[in-house]
TrEMBL record:
Species name: Halotalea alkalilenta
GO molecular function, one term: oxidoreductase activity, acting on the CH-OH group of donors, NAD or NADP as acceptor
The name this protein goes by in its record: sulfoacetaldehyde reductase (NADPH)
Lineage: Bacteria, Pseudomonadati, Pseudomonadota, Gammaproteobacteria, Oceanospirillales
Record has Oxidoreductase as a keyword: yes
Subunit-level organization: Homodimer and heterotetramer.
Keywords (A to Z) from UniProt: Oxidoreductase
Enzyme class: oxidoreductase
InterPro entries xref list: NAD(P)-bd_dom_sf, Sc_DH/Rdtase_CS, SDR_fam
Recorded family membership: Belongs to the short-chain dehydrogenases/reductases (SDR) family.
Pathway(s) where this gene product acts: Organosulfur degradation
Pfam family, one: adh_short
PANTHER family with a match to the protein in the record: ALCOHOL DEHYDROGENASE (PTHR42901)
Amino acid sequence: MSQIAFITGATSGFGRAAARRFAEGGWSLVLSGRRKERLDELKAELESKVPVYVAELDVRDAKAVQDMVAALPEQFRAVKALVNNAGLALSPGPAQGVALEDWQTMIDTNVTGLVNVTHTLLPTLLETGAGASIINIGSVAGQWPYPGGHVYGATKAFVKQFGYNLRCDLISTGVRVTDIAPGMAETEFTLVRTKGDQSASDKLYRGTTPLTAEDIAEQIFYVATLPDHININRLEVMPSRQAWSSFAVDRD
Ligand code: NDP
Ligand code: 8X3
């Protein structure tokens, strides 16, 4: 059985940590993202352990995704685990102040991008069959509304429901589908969300204990390496120092 993981958004955060975790587990890696120099650095770091193929890829571009998969060298073709991790949030303020372009970027990346990659790799995963996995990185924001969640949370709700619906169709194929839904985790996520405001990012994580990229990488690897007959449908993971809060009430 092939042991190849295909990870999108491997240049940072969960994706990069997952690449390291799969390498530790002896899996071959197909890694993508838009920042080529970071991909090259990661390849240099990991290729003494396992075979690594890297490709500069913007998941929003369906044709680029198809071309990249079609160009995979033979030894990297039989993908067993697809980790749909590439994604982002933008504009953490109220919906009424957000530029349309930011909503579109989130939809194009978190929804269209994830669909592009899944559609392109589905035939490969079906060929791999029993034990293959599609592991989608959703979010607590796909389940729980919060102020400033607007389109970001809605894209992650799509990720969750798309995965559940895929499971219905893939039931007899052996291909598993999981929505891993992290809560607060310290990565470059908030830096991206605030368009480069390092102090806002530092402030969000200060004085508490967020999840780390490695915590989520461990969950991704766990899901991918479970016995073939087990499908985790959704894994919601929060820091123990994060929880829900009360309903908001507008008062006079
Ligand atoms: P990072 O910003 O650290 O990493 C995001 C990754 O996504 C980068 O590797 C980036 O690569 C890639 N990416 C973004 N846009 C594109 C694109 N158009 N095409 C290809 N790759 C892209 O954040 P995280 O690691 O935290 O985020 C990973 C996933 O986890 C996202 O889907 C996010 O929504 C989700 N998540 C994050 C949480 C958190 O608190 N950190 C909690 C819950 C979910 P590059 O820029 O090089 O293209
Ligand atoms: C990112 C985590 O808590 O900002 O998906 O929604 S949170």
